[in-house]
Amino acid sequence: MTGRLLAIDTATTACSVALFDDNILIASEYEEIGRGHAEKLIPMIAALPGKGRSDRIIVNCGPGSFTGVRIGVSAAKALGLAWGVRVDGYQCLSLVAAQARQILDQQVPICVAMAAGHGEFFVQNFDGPGLAIDALASLSPAASRDHAKSNIIAGSAARALAEGLANGEFHEILPNAAKSYLLLQEMKQLKSKPIYGRQPDAKPTVAV
């Protein structure tokens, strides 16, 4: 699909946006801010050429921060409605795996580990070409080490996981919207709804 594409990524402590024209990156913004994505995101989009106006929008649907994921998806859908354009999603760990392969400059199996809260990691294994070979899981550090199918670990929790592996190699990476072009096309066509990866901390009260 050609034309202008706006990518939005607020699923982690990083906040980033990128504008592509016929798959060529023309402008981007990236900051590691921790919190405050709601205040930062719209000004970042407005600073892009044409205020980020595009023919299609893609957004990081998670997993990651519950708040960050909701902010990104909500903003993408609001802009999509205002501009009358399609909004698709991509999965956080898939992008981190793609960024790691670019850094390594070779197609090798990679295990992605992202901080998931409550001392757990979001973990998923990817093959050399970048396809997931198992389902996303939220696991304890010990279970994550058993789950890893590669000693090359990428992501925000990469150091913590790799240190428990024999010959573990880590690459601390946060997703960056400007790198979304690295994803295979089908990976950028997910439904634009949050991927939380685990159950919410707060559960609704059931009347008795």
The sequence of SSEs as H and E is EEEHEHEHEEEHEHE
Poorly predicted parts: 201-208
> Structural class from helices and strands?
alpha/beta
Number of domains: 2
Largest sheet: 5 strands, mixed
- The CATH superfamily of the largest domain bears the name ATPase, nucleotide binding domain
Please report the number of helical segments: 5
Radius of gyration: 17 Å
- Tally of strands: 10
Strand content: 25-35%
Distance between the termini: 52 Å
- The fold-level CATH name of the largest domain is Nucleotidyltransferase, domain 5
Mean pLDDT: 93
CATH architecture identity of the largest domain: 2-Layer Sandwich
CATH C-level of the largest domain: Alpha Beta
Can you walk me through this structure?
By secondary structure, this protein is of the alpha/beta class. The chain has 2 domains: 4-91 and 175-188, ATPase, nucleotide binding domain (Nucleotidyltransferase, domain 5, 2-Layer Sandwich); 92-171, 2-Layer Sandwich (Nucleotidyltransferase, domain 5). The protein is 25% helix and 27% strand. It has helices at residues 37-46, 66-83, 92-104, 141-147, 158-162, and strands spanning 4-9, 14-21, 24-32, 56-60, 86-90, 110-117, 120-126, 137-139, 152-154, 169-171. It has a 5-stranded mixed β-sheet with strand order 3-2-1-4-5. It has a 5-stranded mixed β-sheet with strand order 8-7-6-9-10. A hairpin with a 2-residue loop joins strand 2 (14-21) and strand 3 (24-32). The chain is globular, with a radius of gyration of 17 Å. It starts with a strand and ends in a 37-residue tail after the last strand.
